[in-house]
């Protein structure tokens, strides 16, 4: 019997295994997951803090028992600690019984994910939590309740930092956010993030820029600016590192950041070893030759389908890279982008087009501004990067821009996107169209 | 001096004239508009009834005076009553002074719009209003106020019927809607319109299907079902007919419905005569050889830009037909579609794919169902028609489907549209993607 091993049972591994079972009722599938739980919606975890997600169990899609019914063998608390590609085997540590053993595969799917980077000063402090796995959420929720937490420090201002801040605040916990430098949420342009500061102000979030924790003393934190503040709860949101240490001497190619490069089939440098999820790196769909690490759920789910098809024998289903479409909600602020980072786009000759107008017909009572910036490749007219900010309707505009760009639509051709118009939804020349008209003008300059 | 005459000064004519002036500072431009007002957002008119659009003047984009500043000559209350293409002249009736005169053009832009079809039984009844031009809105608002209207009949259930019903109801007026047959809002599939009935129920709207007015007697209406009901105010929303009677002996080609066919440049059968707006007919962008009459603002604005460029000498800017993307809001119901009508699609070999899932991650508190149906061309895999219903997020899905289809994306390729995912906005496999996965399965059957 052909046998597949998946390393990691959260989004990537669990989804790939499920897809594969749908395609092939007979193939042997084993998932090794180093923690207790599998197959949960990790992106939803911040929303359980506020109660927006009412029960933590609603985040859990599948249990080992449910997988068993599908004839998928799930071993939780089992950590794959080495891969031996030339033997097609893995070394597994059964963490509960502290036993090592060898298992063999025909195909290996690597979905080990990442681990939060915790600042040294916060290591081993009992009140510091990250939000990487569902056990972290359980620990955090228990800590908030047993310690009657009414104030918290959030370190970092990425996806997790913003989402946790909003949800702690919605729960009634007073939040101070610390950012080590002078700019928050670097996924968006510095001159487009003003609404985040406004929202913090409006919701009573204290923001301290250029500030780090220098020392934790019990429930107080000493800061680099000389202040001492209460820190009964600290959320660390300072990024993740790929869990690929176990691959270092395997012969599987890793980047200098420890990421696993994959090709259009989802394959690593070994034909029968695939990778996906936060530890994988692929390329941009719309700009050749540029790596894209997208620790995002959408590409993980897409790759799960591709890899399952590849393993089951349909080599026609591939991916041509991703755009990295992303969005975050912070109270009423919706902030989205896709494509190259600002730093990456600087290396390609381009021009920038900005457009701001209302998200619906301007005469409607609650019409709100929406702002789009596109970076247009001077040679091809393609949108290298798009950034959209506003309230309602940001997700629509980024999705339309992404769908258009993916199929090779240029900035100039945005004028032809036939949006559904009625006054509650857009304008007869939507902001999407107007940025196209402006791009045409700008190209003439 | 080259001279352009535009017939009709609402969306199409006024926008084309403005665009032309931007492109050519010297060309002579005259707009003849048969009523008093020009350049207003007619789609917003229903929303003034409820106060969602606070002032009627906010609907007016431009006045004759403002056009004068742009050196565009606007003659209101001037009706073009004949066109003489072989002389390049028009006959104009100055309605205020009841004087006819001849004017000549190098280019003629026809944007005469349509007139509401009023049922014979309602003709000349003082309480019957349509909502076609802004003067109609003024008359209606005055009538509501002076007659202390607290109940109304709405006849018809198209865009106008639904929007007026919602806004009358929001104003506190009790509405009865009459539909002559057994199905409301035929832009959407009969088995997808249930939410409209629910919303009517919830908001206390009385709906009478298979019911017509047989007689108006003062402020009461006799109905075909034998009932007599109060009818102090009646809104007629039973469609429009193109205002093209004045073209009948001109030699300009008209369809049997009186619509003006145009080519990709916006030209009629005369090279220097263009048409756009509710009286024009073009073709579908994604299905060759099928006429599309789209009395919609988006195509009108798009054609205005194309025609202005064509006249100013840039023949490269054309259109390849439209999808007819449309949407309506009725309380919380959002209902959208594009492409062929159900009747048109029946003539092309196709299969249907349905998908229903939540508009955001299912574990979020206010996640709401969204439903998509696509009609997939068996030969090409293109989406011939798409229908989307739900609440928040319908506009996003139809716009993404439209952007994708316009660039030749197939139903199967929907799986690759990289939507911006975060729990408040979508799922890692959005409904857009899932309908693609289902299309792939269905095609295998």
From TrEMBL, chains A, B:
Its cofactor is FAD. Residues 3-288 form the FAD/NAD(P)-binding domain. One of its GO terms (molecular function) is CoA-disulfide reductase (NADPH) activity. Keywords: FAD, Flavoprotein, Oxidoreductase, Redox-active center. The keyword Membrane does not apply. InterPro entries: FAD-bd_OxRdtase (IPR050260), FAD/NAD-bd_sf (IPR036188), FAD/NAD-binding_dom (IPR023753), FAD/NAD-linked_Rdtase_dimer_sf (IPR016156), Pyr_nucl-diS_OxRdtase_dimer (IPR004099). Transmembrane segments: none annotated. Residues 328-426 form the Pyridine nucleotide-disulphide oxidoreductase dimerisation domain. It is an enzyme of class 1 (oxidoreductase). Its EC number is 1.8.1.14. Belongs to the class-III pyridine nucleotide-disulfide oxidoreductase family. This is CoA-disulfide reductase. It comes from Jeotgalicoccus aerolatus.
């Amino acid at each position: 019997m052909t046998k597949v091993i998946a390393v990691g049972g959260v989004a990537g591994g669990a989804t790939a295994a499920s897809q594969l079972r749908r395609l092939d009722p007979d193939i042997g599938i084993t998932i090794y997951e180093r923690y207790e739980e599998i197959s949960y919606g990790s992106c939803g975890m911040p929303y359980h803090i506020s109660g927006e997600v009412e029960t933590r169990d609603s985040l859990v899609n599948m249990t080992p028992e449910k997988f068993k019914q599908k004839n998928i063998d799930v071993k939780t608390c089992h950590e794959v600690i080495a891969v031996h590609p030339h033997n097609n085997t893995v070394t597994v540590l059964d963490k509960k019984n502290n036993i090592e053993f060898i298992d063999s595969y025909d195909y290996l799917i690597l979905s080990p994910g990442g681990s939060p980077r915790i600042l040294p000063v916060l290591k081993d402090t009992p009140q510091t939590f990250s939000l990487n796995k569902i056990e972290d959420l359980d620990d955090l929720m228990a800590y908030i309740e047993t310690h009657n937490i009414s104030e918290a420090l959030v370190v970092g201002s990425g996806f997790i930092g913003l989402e946790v801040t909003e949800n702690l605040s919605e729960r009634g916990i007073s939040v101070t956010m610390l950012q080590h430098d002078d700019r928050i949420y670097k996924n968006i342009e510095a001159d487009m993030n003003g609404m985040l500061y406004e929202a913090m102000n409006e919701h009573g979030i204290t923001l301290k820029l250029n500030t780090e924790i220098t020392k934790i003393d019990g429930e107080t934190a000493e800061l680099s600016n000389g202040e001492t503040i209460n820190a009964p709860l600290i959320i660390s949101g300072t990024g993740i590192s790929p869990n690929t240490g176990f691959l270092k001497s395997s012969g599987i190619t890793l980047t200098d950041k420890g990421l696993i490069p994959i090709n259009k089939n989802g394959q690593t440098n070994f034909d029968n070893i695939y990778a996906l999820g936060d530890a994988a790196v692929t390329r941009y769909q719309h700009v050749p030759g540029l790596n894209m690490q997208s620790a995002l759920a959408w590409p993980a789910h897409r790759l799960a389908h591709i890899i399952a098809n590849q393993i089951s024998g349909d080599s026609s289903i591939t991916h041509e890279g991703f755009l990295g479409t992303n969005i975050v909600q912070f109270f009423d602020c919706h902030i989205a982008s896709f494509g190259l980072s600002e730093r990456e786009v600087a290396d390609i000759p381009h021009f920038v087009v900005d457009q701001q107008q209302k998200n619906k017909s301007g005469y409607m009572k609650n019409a709100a501004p929406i702002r789009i910036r596109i970076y247009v490749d001077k040679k091809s007219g393609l949108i290298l990067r798009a950034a959209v900010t506003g309230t309602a309707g940001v997700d629509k505009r980024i999705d339309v821009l992404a769908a258009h760009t993916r199929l090779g639509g240029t900035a100039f051709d945005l004028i032809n996107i036939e949006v559904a118009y009625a006054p509650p939804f857009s304008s007869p020349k939507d902001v999407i169209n107007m940025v196209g008209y402006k791009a045409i003008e700008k190209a003439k300059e």
